[in-house]
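request received
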Amino acid sequence: MKRTRNISLANLRKADKPLPLKPLTIGVMAATLSACGDSEVADIYASVMECAAENPDFVEVCEAAYEQALQEAEDTSPKYTRQGDCESDFGTQACVPHSSMGNNWFMPAMAGFMMARMFDSDFDLKKKRRKRYSSPLFMSKSRRSPVFGNWVSARGQSYGAFNTKRVKVSSKAFAPKPKVTKTIQRGGFGSMASKVASRSSWGG
Amino acid sequence: MLRLPIAERPRWRDQAHEYGFGFHTMYGEPYWDETAYYQFSLQQVEDHIEDPTAELHQMCLQVVDKVVRDEALLERFQIPRPYWDLVASSWHASEPSLYSRLDLAYDGHGPAKLLENNADTPTSLFETGFWQWLWLQDSVDAGRLSRQADQFNSLQEKLVARLAQLGRQRPGQPLHFSCCRDTEEDRGTVQYLQDCAQEAGIQAPFVFIEDLGVGQSGAFTDQQNQSVSWLFKLYPWEFMLREEFAEHLAGAGCRWLEPLWKSLISNKAILPLLWQMFPGHPNLLPAYFEDQLAASGLQHYVKKPIFAREGANVSIHKQGKTLLDTGGPYGAEGYIYQAYTPMPKFADSYTLVGSWLVDDQPAGMSIREDSQQVTQDSSRFLPHIILG
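response:
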């Protein structure tokens, strides 16, 4: 056979999801792993209290994990110039203003955090060896979002529905994503195209 | 190779809507045409299209390897001097490529002749990889075509596999996709590639190429101010390198699909170079630069601008007379001259075979028809099958 064996038609169907002309921030991607390998188990908590209730001997670890996630959320969450764009991805009242380096943005409020599970006898040792063991999570309350009701990372990866408590993740899940930078110049490419003529394609 | 009439699928326009294929009719004219199809034998496909495609691609890579080491040739290829090093380093670093499409003149009786190589921004990808595949599936299911009918078209399968392979080299990293604003056809092509990337397990956000920004670190940013470190663009390098924004390329540390060295293959200047390095090759037409034309003795030739889009500014000359001139805004960078070969004619149309590669693997075929000898974006896309 000289043709593609199988194509999943559902993946290509666009009828109920109109072609997005607006840049999509959130990609739907299952981040959980089913196979073994370079993975570890992580717990999802909506708050420090929830974490502390489940791990009464490690309250201070919960607090530190929360702080670490909160800091990372500031640095790496998706940033929007318009509140409406943020809300269309994350839902009304799910976004907060955020100022940094002279930019005024809107970002989704952190809805919870994911903490690597390592509560065993040598926890302190592990913690010392390892700088990052928690990561911020967001949740979309927008029915228009492909990740409505799901925990998503700052990378836009989905970790399952809101009631997910424990996930198996790649150990890379705790690596911080590149920091959102201040954009000093906007303009991009495309100036030649605007000089020639308007058309439906620049390919060939 | 036959052109055969067939009944249209009754619901295909609804289906096109369902799959987001909005540009099946353009400028009021049909672009996707399934009132007929082309039939090839397996031997025609394998011996006349597939094998020569793999070989032509390898020959083009040899040209690239020569040009990046030769300043006089980079000049000939009209690469702006400030970017010579970037083009060369993209080649020496073996930056991976995704896909290409060779345009071939082929009438069923080999050898196919290379007209040009769309190695940088090939379009009609969705129509080839998915839409004509679906047409075959539906037509076989409806009993209009034999169950034995196959198609030279593993494009989607190979694209997904290639993207998955590239994704493993950059774990966890999103691949941004971009094209120009207000280009429905390009947006559709890019959306298809985003779908393929997602199937390959890669996050695939979109940014219009006009909306790219530069961050404090020098890296490119998208509309959400996220850094863009790996970017697919459906916008030609030959334009980009002539735009102001290109001054940020060196400092941005961005990996590109297609990589910069592809700008030497999608360049018409590769045609005289191929003829120079592989003279008399059965799949090549004699081709020359302007200063070589007189000595070549070529009397009947096609004059093509070094850079142009979709058949613009192409003219056909015979013994000093101009037989056809498509006109257009290009040509400032000079022209090349390629020996004339008659375009195969089926029914009342001239037929062009597009032969696809994913990286260096032949991956499928697309057929376009036009009412004139130079295929333009007014051409029609027809499906094909392999039978016998």
